[in-house]
């Protein structure tokens, strides 16, 4: 379902490669949501959240270092958006996930979907220009 397409290319190879990983995490999340055979998805949800926490911290740091290196004028705006995304991922209440697993998977997927379609297309594209 989630595949990295040419329209998401920023023209900065390492950023594009890192964005591909975010698409892969989104695809794993979507597949978990659609998996009707897994009745208890708690451990997999927690694993996806932890993977997302670790990977976004790595990716955002790399992207911000690059923006600083090229004196990117919109770096502050990017950093604010990155910090807000990380806060949302880090503020997940793991004890509540078990109560409504499908709802949490949907929330994660919506967050990723919004990020991939809005942030990359509207903000990260400007870095490559």
From TrEMBL:
It holds the Pfam family Hemerythrin. Residues 10-126 form the Hemerythrin-like domain. The keyword Metal-binding applies. One of its GO terms (molecular function) is metal ion binding. Keywords: Iron, Metal-binding. It comes from the Bacteria. PANTHER family: BACTERIOHEMERYTHRIN (PTHR37164:SF1). Belongs to the hemerythrin family. NCBIfam families: bact_hemeryth, hemeryth_dom. This is Bacteriohemerythrin.
